[in-house]
Amino acid sequence: MFLSDRRFCRPALPTRLPTPLTPHRVGEPDKTNEIQNLEEQLDDLQRAATESELELEFKVRIELTGESRPSEEALTKLNELLKELSKDFDLK
After folding, report:
1. pTM exceeds 0.70
2. Do the domain assignments include residue 85?
């Protein structure tokens, strides 16, 4: 049995969640500068949604990436900073 045998290969996971099959529309910024740009447009976005009798809903997901697991010290520092924004942020 070889690792290249397709019967034993796992399918690649999508990098983004699939678009839901509902009337909802989802945009997912994936770079820090895109989130900063979003912040700059927030008032205009909220106004446009309200004028259309819609509501904006935000869900934020933060992921750490790197060659190895983060140290406890790094996690503690990051969580302290995130808790200043919201008690709901907690990197595990």
Report:
1. no
2. yes
